[in-house]
Write a structure and sequence with these properties.
two-stranded antiparallel ribbon; alpha+beta; extended; single chain; 8-stranded mixed sheet; 7 helices
Amino acid sequence: MQTTWKGTISFGLVSIPVHLYSATQEHDVPLHQVHAKDGGRVRMKRYCEQEEKEVPYAEIAKGYESPDGRTVTLSDEDLADLPLPSKKIIDVLAFVDEGEIDPLMFSKAYYVGVADKAAAKPYALLRDALTESGQIAVTKIALRTRESPAVLRVHDNTLVLQTCIWPDEVRPVAGIAPEGDVTVRPQELKMARSLMDTLSEDFDLAQLHDDYQQALQQVITARLEGVEVPHEEEPGEAPDNVIDLMEALRSSLKQAKGGRGAGAEGAGAGDVDAGEEPAPRKRAPARKTAPKAGPKSAEKSAEKTSAKASAKTSGTGATRSPAAKRTATRKSSAPRKAS
């Protein structure tokens, strides 16, 4: 795995030499630009406006144009020599609960690996401390041409550094959510929760796949083989507005349970009246236990036990008639007279 960044995690006076590796990769179908008329490849050329000619990539630098029109050229050496502590050091600033960081701020993730064997113990120390506390470490790091806040957390017994955007880069949400008071009835909320539980049964995130890439590959294959391109059936028109929210929830719940093959447990769940709460799930019937022995059953059990004992003492292999068995039972169960 290619190293993305080399530096040190500073944890108080503890230093951990580490390497960063990209933790994710996207599986896009590679597409490039072509001329729609004849399929000719369209290439982007680096063209210098001042010299009016194409320039090689080795002569490309970064520049900044000021509001008054002046241009400043920055070389790779200028960017590499920035007086920035976070270029090579991931300084742990604080430890917070993971819930204190809005997931909206999370950006790219990197696996954190040790740079040498000496870093193994402090690495394990920080990892285990984060695991035991249930917290994440807030840090800063400079990657390429950008400094970002970041967090250190544990994933599969490995430290992960996840870069974040700055808090002031999160746009305000004013005017996005519906305005005014919207009343949701308790029955609707309960039905929605029941639908959520049904859709979540046996859900496995690892089973999801990229339908878009699969469909795109089918179209590309059809074009290469000169056959008809597959087309998806046109879906029906979606309703413009939900007229009866309860009815929509009821139908959704019924469809979800039917799609999951729910048996008797799911039967009738979609028939909940709009004014009633959803029926609770049926519990499995309790196992039947043998009834406690009463006086009569205890007496019968004693008679059977005595009969078996009499049969054993009368000899092996001998067969006794039913009448003889009853007589022996009565004799064995009769109380003895006091001498």
